[in-house]
Amino acid sequence: MTFNDYRIESIKRIARKNHAKIWTNIVQKLEHNHEINVGTLSKVTKTGDVIAVPGKVLGAGIIEHSITIGAVSFSESAKEKIKNAGGTTMLIEKLVETNPEGKGVKIFVG
User: Fold this and answer.
1) Which of 16, 78, 93, 96 is most enclosed, with most CB atoms within 10 A?
2) CA–CA separation, 88 vs 66, rounded Å?
3) Is the pTM of this model over 0.85?
4) Residue 104: alpha-carbon gap to chain centroid
5) Measured between alpha carbons, how far is 1 from 23 in angstroms, rounded to an integer?
6) How do residues 53-108 score in pLDDT, each as one tens digit?
7) CA-CA distance, 78 to 57, in Å (whole number)?
8) Got the DSSP string for 42-64?
9) Is 88 helix (H, G, I), strand (E, B) or coil?
10) Contact at 8 Å (CB) between 91 and 74?
11) Euclidean distance between CA atoms 12 and 96, whole angstroms
12) Measured between alpha carbons, how far is residue 2 from residues 6, 21, 91, 105 in Å?
């Protein structure tokens, strides 16, 4: 899935409005096709973390704690594993909308 210009401009607009450098950083990372597995995320996160992935989250591995993840896309198995662990998945622009200042958000790339 390619990230279209409208979605990028929407994130840039929110970043400028809220002086949130984290979202500007995300836009720069969107130029690459990052992928990360839920198993990797499980190892580097803890319950309650809010994660931004400028790419696709894949379902390899196990996750047993709840996290909130905004990403460009998710495999069906990744969505299922995150949901079963009590977590939340959303498109990255939705994460930007719900947390425009980017407070407490961690960026992970594969």
Assistant:
1) 96
2) 7
3) yes
4) 13
5) 20
6) 999 999 999 999 999 999 999 999 999 999 999 999 999 999 999 999 999 999 99
7) 6
8) HHH--TT-EEEEEEEEE--S---
9) strand
10) no
11) 10
12) 11, 22, 13, 23
